[in-house]
């Protein structure tokens, strides 16, 4: 039997990590919300994997910042020619722009995929909703 919350809306049958019942509203034909649905486990894993890739971009930015700091220190101390340092800084600036562009493309692609998944999930929910409540 489906749990029902305030207003008689069906609720997810799963329990959260702290042991309390999940309170998310689900479609009439569903047992679990997206976060707890075993059938959505692979999609959740892929989303988490994409989030991990963003960390790679952050690592590249941190590395470029460290190189720029070292380059600045080397110029100040006279260990690197100012002309070479200027060219290196320009190259690092181009790298930074490409990293940012890559991040924007990934973000846009991921957002488009998430919107598509949500639209598909909404269509499924509305199909179940219409049968029971329509």
Structural overview:
By secondary structure, the protein is an all-alpha fold. The protein has two domains: about 1-35, no CATH class; about 50-115. It contains two helices and two strands. It has helices at about 40-75, 80-134; strands at about 5, 10. It has a two-stranded antiparallel ribbon. Strand 1 and strand 2 (about 10) form a beta hairpin. The chain is elongated, with a radius of gyration of 25 Å. It starts with a strand and ends with a helix. Mean pLDDT is about 80; it is low at about 130-134.
What distinguishing features does this structure have?
134 residues, mainly alpha, 2 domains, 3% strand, disordered C terminus, 2 strands, elongated, two-stranded antiparallel sheet
Helix/strand layout:
Layout (H helix, E strand, L loop, with lengths): L2 E2 L5 E2 L29 H36 L5 H52 L1
Antiparallel strand pairs: 1-2
Summarize this, please?
With 134 residues, this protein is mainly α.
Q: How would you describe the shape?
A: elongated
- Would you list the SSEs in sequence order as H and E? EEHH
Count of individual domains: 2
What's the β-strand tally? Answer: 2
Sheet-strand content, in percent, reads under 5%
Sheet with most strands: 2 strands, antiparallel
Mean pLDDT: 82
Helix content: 55-70%
Please count the helical segments.
2
Task: Give the structural class.
Answer: mainly alpha
How far apart are the first and last residues' alpha carbons, in Å?
A: 20 Å
Rg for CA atoms: 25 Å
Strand order of the largest sheet: 1-2
Task: Give the low-pLDDT segments.
Answer: 130-134
């Amino acid at each position: 039997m489906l749990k029902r919350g305030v207003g008689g809306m069906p609720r997810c049958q799963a329990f959260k990590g702290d042991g309390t019942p999940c309170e998310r509203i689900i479609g009439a034909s569903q047992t679990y919300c997206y976060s707890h649905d075993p059938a959505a486990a692979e999609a959740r894993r892929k989303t988490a994997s994409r989030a991990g890739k963003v960390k790679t971009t952050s690592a590249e930015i941190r590395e470029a910042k460290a190189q720029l700091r070292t380059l600045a220190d080397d110029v100040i101390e006279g260990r690197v020619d100012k002309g070479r340092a200027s060219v290196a800084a320009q190259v690092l600036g181009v790298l930074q722009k490409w990293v940012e562009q890559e991040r924007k493309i990934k973000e846009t692609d991921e957002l488009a995929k998430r919107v598509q998944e949500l639209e598909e999930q909404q269509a499924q929910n509305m199909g179940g909703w219409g049968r029971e409540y329509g």
